[in-house]
Every structure is written in C-alpha cells, then in structure tokens.
Design brief:
By secondary structure, the chain is of the alpha+beta class. The chain has a domain of 110 residues: Orthogonal Bundle (Arc Repressor Mutant, subunit A), CATH 1.10.10.10. 57% of the residues lie in helices and 15% in strands. The chain contains six helices and four strands, in the order E-E-H-H-H-H-E-E-H-H. Strands 1-2 form a two-stranded antiparallel ribbon. Strands 3-4 form a two-stranded antiparallel sheet. Helix 1 packs across helix 5 and helix 2 crosses helix 5. The longest helix has 25 residues. The termini are far apart. This is DNA-binding MarR family transcriptional regulator.
Amino acid sequence: MRSDTNRPDTVATQAPDQHESVRLGSLEHYLAFHLRMAQCASFKAFKRRSGDCSLKPGWFALLSLIGDNPGITPMALSRASGRDKSTLTPVLRELAANCMIERQELKGDKRSYTLSLTAKGKCELAVLATHAIQHDREIEEIAGSDKDVLLDLLRRITAQFD
C-alpha cells in the first residue's frame, strides 16, 4: 500500500516491517473522533514526559481532585472527573494498593467512604504535577492565541453532554 501521509484523510500507522496508511474516510470529519485522538496523543506525550511506568497519566486528575478535596466520596469524584463509577473503582483500588490514597468509612453510611491522599500520594501528585505543567505548556503552544476559545469549546461540549 502506498504511504500518503500528506493527505488529510489518511493516518500513518507503524507496522513492524512496513509503513502503512489508513484512510480515515468519514472519520476525518467527526469532531468526536479527533477529540479522542487528541486525548490519546496527549496521554502518550504525558507518559513519555513522566517516564515512570508506575505513574499513569489518568491518575493525575484523580490524585489532584482528591488532594484538593480531602474527604471526597467516590461518587463526587466520579462526577468531577467525568469517569464512570465502574471504571473509577478499579483505579481507586490500584491507588489504594499503591498506598497513594486512603479510604475512610463515612460516618452514618457503612456503604460509602471518603478518600484522601497519603504522604506517598502527595509526593506522587507533586511529581505528576511537575510533568503536567510542562505538558500543558506544550499544548498551550499548539493552541496559541486560541487557547481560551479551545477551553470554552471543550467546556461547552462537556456541559452539553454531561
């Protein structure tokens, strides 16, 4: 197959022994597809920047929200982070297993609990925050003077569909 990465409706993918172009077809014009691709590219870049296999880019927002809201419940964290409770629960288990967060029983409700950062969680958050600041600066360079417009559009999309 011919590699044609200059065409806007193709995307280059690396196979083990060949360079292959994939036509995006109608996906080229779907905003949601490009939002997802931008998120994936951003997470990959953040992961490369942080370089630590044990720290995951998706943890930054959760640790940050927990750090800024000690005693937050998983339900409130789910809403604030945009993560479904079913995908949040395994991540919280992993963060607890890695001693980054602690769970405390919610008084008067045995079925729920609150979350707070441990000393290790605060340290890991500080490391991730350093990388996040640099990563965000790179994104700001791409957005340029359109940063506020981009943020407004992203917030409007979130508000409309959430």
